[in-house]
Specification:
alpha/beta, Rossmann fold, 5-stranded parallel beta sheet, 5 strands, 13% strand
């Protein structure tokens, strides 16, 4: 298993499809304080999330002096404040931390920096590979992710993911 830092999206989307328990594939789940605030807007409190995920969440404060310059840079121009905080938190952690995000701008920035990034689909696949989900449950979960969650994807990505599932 490994440690992860998460943006709001994967936690929210896993909640929407009742698959928060798949976060058990990670030893440690760390979020920034701005991500915690965003999750609370959806009535997702830390105590409830920890119970549903079966994992403790570590909430870390990142000083504005660390992440605000990223927002002002051309590299971070498309990021929200919570995304910039996640990027800053990632830079403060070991390179083997997996960063969880469904935000394309944040994903690209982190990948350019050499970080390992996974989205909600990646968490579900990790859960399958760790035997937390069977193949039918994985397929059903991904179909629900595309049809019942607030994850925004295009039809090309959906077709691509569903075709990959056939090879598992």
């Amino acid at each position: 298993m490994s440690d992860a830092i998460s943006d709001t999206g994967p936690i929210l989307h896993l909640h929407e499809i009742q698959r928060l328990a798949t976060l058990a594939v990670f030893d440690t789940l760390e979020i920034s304080d701005l991500v915690e605030i965003e999750l609370r807007r959806f009535d997702l409190t830390m105590s409830w999330l920890e119970k549903a995920a079966g994992r403790k969440f570590v909430v870390s404060h990142v000083e504005p002096a660390v992440w605000e310059p990223l927002l002002a840079s051309s590299e971070g121009a498309r990021l929200q404040a919570a995304d910039a905080q996640v990027a800053a938190l990632a830079s403060l952690r070991a390179s083997d931390f997996v960063i969880l995000t469904d935000d394309m701008a944040l994903r690209k920035l982190l990948e350019r920096r050499g970080r390992s990034v996974a989205g909600t689909v990646g968490v579900l696949v990790r859960a399958y590979r760790s035997n937390l989900l069977g193949k039918n449950t994985l397929v059903t979960s991904i179909e629900k992710l595309f049809s019942e969650s607030t994850l925004h994807t295009g039809p090309g990505f959906r077709r691509y993911v569903l075709s990959l599932l056939e090879g598992l």
